[in-house]
């Protein structure tokens, strides 16, 4: 474990050096965990030789027990005051910070620290996180297996008059038997409500011959899964069968394009073109996919303008969807791992 | 409903005018909901005469169905591009923004919009939200009743060898019968682990004669509850009975000080002094309380340096706790409503 974090810190230190800053201040919880393997709430200040974990008395016991080799700083007056004391000791003049995670107001307060210049360095840790190691992929696979078992459990419990909320509640109860928690709020939608890509479960009851859309994921040791299934509860219009066929074929086409070196926008384009040709381009309301790891939405983005390049170890979703307002929608979402030679659907 | 949001928008417009800006850009989801009564993900640009709800195609259907009287803008290229188009149309030169919620990076992108100056205005909506109206208090009471019923349910199911995780899972299943979701991740801790103020449930099993700490809340229509109970499962050392007595007495003392016009730091001081005198000042690891509403932690802060002044309609927690590392801890948390003449424990 220590080896893993030391290697991650080493890579980050190299990037810090390239940016010509003397240190880097990290706020995002998934990033601090990635670098420390500790979920205690806190912020990291990394310098060439030292590593500080700045936290509050609330997390002092946890931090002390999990962070050997770190300098643990318990902030007293404020976070900025603690940072000031460290900067003063180190004599640091230029420090990078996570510009996408510190608010403008937090930046302003840091800016009041005399003698230190704050350099925005967005996305440094996120870029590292996009490529998963064996242990991370194993966590994701475990989270995926729980999600799949939950689908089976829910499908077996589909019944007339059940509400979206009750079904979601039953799914959560099952999912938490083997996972730490849901990766995100479950989406359980019936009938015409399936046209809402991010709809929340309501008291809507299921009737015969309706669409059922389930989008769910589990979290294990911080790592997420994210899958979507659309189920026909009884008979549905022929149109829905055609759309289902269309989007799963589009998904296959996109999967075949996955391999190291390919630009993400090309994957999006492949998937989108097929849906466009069938006349549903305008109602494929979202991107083709997104990376999954410690966050359920992370790098790489599978969008029409994404310039990210696929690399072995990346994990992302492919999730074509067609949404007809007032009628319903279909989405199918799988998770894909970029291998040395291509891409495989994660099982 | 429209009346409520119009009144809230009116108050905010007054504040915008005082700040000498022509508009105000709002990002925080609880703030956009507070002003629009719509949970669709989006941002609000409020000007003297107009109100824009800027969202993506993912939430277009929901926004259109819920936001009458609003100008709904579906962003195409990016959020900043959508804002730019509106600013150009309006000819706005100075616009305030939620400086505590927009990241530095988002601010930087907004800054590239030609002809518009961005003025940091943190906390405007939060300050309004601190004072609850009758309908909001009624939602909070409902969320509180679900939390209390969940405590009863969990207490009745305490048994030897149950794990913290399983008990949390059972609590969630029960809570979601009548609430939309948990207000925050449940804290369920046994034995020596009760000394972790924000510990997460683990596979730790309950044994006879141990402490049990439960900290949970429900969310109904966006409004949260937040309560903590410490239970003696069997016989525990006399010391724990004494600490329990001490902190509930400190809580009562603080409650008696609650009335409009009182400064929050005074409430914290009253509670803290009593615990200090008993020799536990150093191990009361956190603040005395926090406001609860659309967020589980919001204004007012009941801390030693809080200068906020209590007003009728404010709702906050009083949560003394004593934590002995390696041994265990006790916390008792109630929710208090500031009335015209004093304060009452919410039931």
Order of helices and strands of chain A: HEHEEHEHEHEHHHEEEEEEHHEEEEEEE
Assign a percent range to the helix content of chain A.
25-40%
Task: Specify Rg of chain A, calculated over alpha carbons.
Answer: 23 Å
- Greatest interface by residues involved: A-B, 42 and 41 residues
CATH level-four homologous superfamily name of the largest domain in chain A: Creatinase/methionine aminopeptidase superfamily
The CATH architecture of the largest domain in chain A can be named as Alpha-Beta Complex
Discrete helix count of chain A: 10
How many individual domains of chain A? 2
Report the span from N to C terminus of chain A.
25 Å
Q: What is the chains' assembly state?
A: homodimer
Question: What is the name of the CATH class of the largest domain in chain A?
Answer: Alpha Beta
Shape of chain A: elongated
The main sheet of chain A orders its strands as 4-3-2-1-5-6
How would you describe the overall organization of this protein?
- Two copies of one chain form a homodimer.
- The first copy, chain A, is of the alpha+beta class and 347 residues long.
- Chain A folds into two domains: 2-129, Creatine Amidinohydrolase, Chain A, domain 1; 134-345, Alpha-Beta Complex (Creatine Amidinohydrolase).
- Chain A is 37% helix and 23% strand.
- Chain A has helices at 2-18, 29-36, 60-66, 79-90, 104-111, 124-129, 134-156, 164-178, 238-257, 264-277; strands spanning 23-26, 42-47, 51-55, 71-74, 94-97, 117-120, 181-182, 187-190, 210-216, 218-220, 223-224, 227-233, 289-291, 298-302, 315-318, 321-324, 328-331, 334-338, 343-345.
- In chain A, the strands form six sheets. In chain A, strands 4-3-2-1-5-6 form a six-stranded mixed β-sheet, with helices on both faces.
- In chain A, helix 9 (238-257) packs antiparallel against helix 10.
């Amino acid at each position: 474990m220590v080896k893993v974090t030391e290697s991650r810190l080493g890579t980050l230190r190299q990037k810090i050096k390239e940016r010509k800053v003397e240190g880097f201040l990290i706020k995002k919880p998934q990033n601090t965990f990635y670098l420390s393997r500790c979920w205690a709430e806190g912020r990291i200040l990394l310098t060439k030789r030292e590593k500080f974990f700045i936290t509050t008395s609330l997390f002092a016991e946890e931090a002390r027990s999990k962070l050997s080799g770190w300098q643990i700083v318990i902030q007293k007056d404020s976070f900025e005051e603690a940072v000031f004391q460290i900067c003063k000791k180190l004599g640091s003049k230029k420090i990078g910070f996570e510009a996408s995670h510190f608010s403008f107001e937090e930046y302003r307060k840091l800016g009041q620290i005399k003698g230190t210049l704050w350099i925005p360095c967005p996305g440094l840790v996120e870029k590292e996180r996009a490529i998963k190691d064996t242990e991370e992929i194993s966590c994701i696979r475990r989270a995926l297996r729980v999600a799949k078992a939950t689908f089976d459990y829910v499908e077996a419990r589909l019944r007339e008059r059940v509400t979206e909320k009750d079904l979601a509640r039953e799914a959560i109860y099952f999912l938490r038997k083997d996972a730490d928690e849901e990766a995100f709020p479950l989406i359980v939608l019936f009938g015409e409500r399936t046209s809402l890509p991010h709809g929340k479960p309501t008291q809507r009851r299921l009737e015969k011959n309706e669409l059922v859309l389930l989008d769910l994921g589990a979290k294990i040791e911080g790592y997420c899964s994210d899958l979507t299934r659309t189920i026909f509860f009884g008979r549905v219009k022929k149109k829905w069968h055609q759309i289902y066929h269309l989007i799963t074929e589009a998904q296959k086409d996109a999967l075949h394009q996955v391999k190291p070196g390919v630009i993400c926008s090309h994957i999006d384009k492949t998937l989108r073109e097929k849906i466009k040709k069938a006349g549903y381009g305008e109602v494929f309301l979202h991107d083709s996919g997104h990376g999954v790891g410690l966050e359920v939405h992370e790098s790489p983005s599978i969008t029409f303008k994404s310039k990210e390049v696929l690399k072995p170890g990346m994990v992302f979703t492919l999730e074509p969807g067609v949404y007809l307002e007032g009628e319903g929608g279909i989405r199918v979402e799988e998770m894909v791992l970029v291998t040395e030679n291509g891409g495989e659907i994660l099982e």
